Amino acid sequence: MTAIIHPDAPADRVGAQSPFRVARRVRGLSDRAIAWLFVAPTVALLLAINIFPLVWMIRLSFTNLNLSMSYLPLRFVGLDNYSDILTDEDLWLRLQTTAQFVISSVALQVVIGFGLALLINRQFRSHSFWTTIILLPMMLSPAVVGNFWTLLFQPQIGPFNYVVGLFTGIPPSSFSMTGEVALAPWTIVLVDTWMWAPYVMLICLAGLRSIPDYIYEAAEVDRASSLRQFWSITLPMTMPFLMLAVLFRAIENFKMFDMVNLLTSGGPGSTTELVSITLKRAAFEKWRTGYSSALAIILFVTVFGAANIYVKALNRVKQR
Amino acid sequence: MSAVAKSTAHSIVEASPRTKAFAGTLVVLYALVAILPLLWIAATAFKSQSDAIAYPPKVIFQPTLEGYVNLFTVRTRQTREFINSLPPATAWYDKLVRSHDMVIAGPSKVVPRFINSLVIGFGSTFLAVLLGTLAAYAFSRFRIPLADDLLFFILSTRMMPPVAVAIPIYLMYRQLNLTDTKIGMILLYTAVNVSLAVWLLKGFIDEIPREYEEAALVDGYTRLQALRKVVLPQAVTGIAATAIFCLIFSWNEYAFAVLLTSGDAQTMPPFIPFIIGEGGQDWPAVAAATTLFVIPIVLFTILLRKHLLRGITFGAVRK
Fewest CB within 10 A of the end CB: N or C in chain B? Predict the structure, then answer.
């Protein structure tokens, strides 16, 4: 009877010597049934909310669908959208802007985050309290952060320009962090670093704490200088953790939308128009659904590739 | 000899007091500079309109609750004569508003938006943690074919650019009449959160020794009873931490909210930037909304501080 209900019952019989397996076979649902029952709702939800729309979008990316002109007959245009995107010079510029943002913000976060982690690892008094304070910005809503930094960056009334003026003597109303072509790309890097340097710090700190003391003791016995210890022990042993932080921040900033949308909304001109903002404009302002689906697919593939590398890095760290 | 050994040990395991003081000073300086923007916003919430836009920016000012009153009300400008013809104001907020030649016309939309944030946040958190706990238990305890690929698939859905995900969701929700509904947003946030929940909870459940359950099974419990009476009570901390992470995500989320809602289901993040007064953003009111919005996050961060590392690495780094 059980064999009919539970297809894996014969396999259980093989291991029937163990009391654990007997208990499992005799009472309630089989393990395999439970496993599927438990995983199925999650997979079903993800199929419905992620995969089905994705497949639909792949189909749309080969069409000329434009929601603001939905009276036009739906036509399959083959790879036209993709070739439009790949030959669009403006879009390459947006990708360049995005790459510059990703590289400079992640680099800055690594320097500040790793530096802070080294300092906090000295375990001075009340370091855990100050660590929690430092971590606060990364827990906030990026949109709300982008919004309130626009107040801080107001040329006349904002405290940022005033403080810069105090230290450098530059009149506070003579420059605008969010309104000037030369400054705006650095403004988004600055705010992003304020938010996410703590993230790099927290992960590096875990890396530093994973290094056993005896390695430093051995180095000390060998009379290695502290600089040598840093290059030969600290840095290589923290590297897997640092890579983890770098990869995740790079992926997150590659798809950055919320904070920058509220801080500069891509401006002035298109100096801070990251590729997600371009995508949002194409999809939700120009309503070029076919075209933007193709662009979305290209971004998906990129992130998917990066996520694959990230998960490999995660598993490497996990084994530590 | 012993003195040498002592000093070496000191320099290795523990930093010297001078190094510590130096490191501490730098870190505290960074923390103070980093926290300043938040303190500035909290202070701006208590400024009057004119103090908020004063030059040079005011550090010392007469605190007022104008910002908070403006956040919760809609006001209309009236003539002195009209205000004087009204029955005398009794409530303190009426008096405050009338002193600026205005009368309160009604409540603003902030309370419904706040409730939307709560409903969507708790709804999606509950579902994500429920589904996540079940799936994580299965991944942790049973051999599931292609488990690694399935786990990667689950995580990769979270890493997709939200604007790109929103395009087909927008089309699908339009067909299903789910645009600008709480149910629609709850389902969407559940899908995003469930990936984090599965990964985090798998880490927590992996740490509970299997022997406990096996003993329970031998005692005649079924798997489900063992899960409910043995595993779940042990995983309570992990489940709570996971729930807070999910709640924070839903609370903070902006891209989906701004693209897929416009009114009925709008949450706080897309609402806050559009709190406007006469002539542009009403900064004290925006700051007041931001403060109220951020306070729960600050509390949660303090509660979570031991689990933050896990949360941001999907459970991979545990210390």
Answer: N
A132 at the B interface (CB within 8 A)?
yes
Interface touch A279/B272, C-beta < 8 Å = no
Residue among B104, B44, B112 nearest B69 (CA): B104
Instruction: Locate CATH 1.10.3720.10 in chain B.
Output: 111-312
Q: Are A170 and A29 in the same domain?
A: no
Cβ of B190 under 8 Å from any chain A Cβ?
yes
Homologous superfamily (CATH) for B111-312: MetI-like (1.10.3720.10)
Task: Using the CB atoms, write b or e for B198-216: b if 16+ within 10 Å.
Answer: bbbbbbbbeebeeeebbeb
Domain count across chain A: 2
Does one domain contain both A168 and A120? yes
Contacts of A254 in chain B (CB under 8 A): 161
Q: Nearest residue of B to residue A45 by CA position?
A: B191
DSSP states along B234-245: HTHHHHHHHHHH
pTM of the entire structure? 0.88
Tell me which of A47, A61, A121, A148 to substitute to probe the interface with B (most B C-beta atoms closer than 10 Å): A148
Coil, strand or helix at B220: coil
Q: Is the ipTM of this complex over 0.95?
A: no
Q: In which domain, by residue range, is A253 found?
A: 81-318
Whether residue A124 is contained in a domain is answered as: yes
The answer to whether residue A292 neighbours chain B at the CB level (below 8 Å) is: yes
Q: Is the CB of residue B282 less than 8 Å from the CB of residue B276?
A: yes
Average pLDDT across each block of 10 residues of chain B; the chain has 319 residues. List them in order: 42 73 93 95 91 85 90 87 84 85 87 95 97 95 88 87 91 92 95 94 92 89 88 93 95 94 91 82 92 94 89 82
- Token pair 């960056």 is at which residue? A153
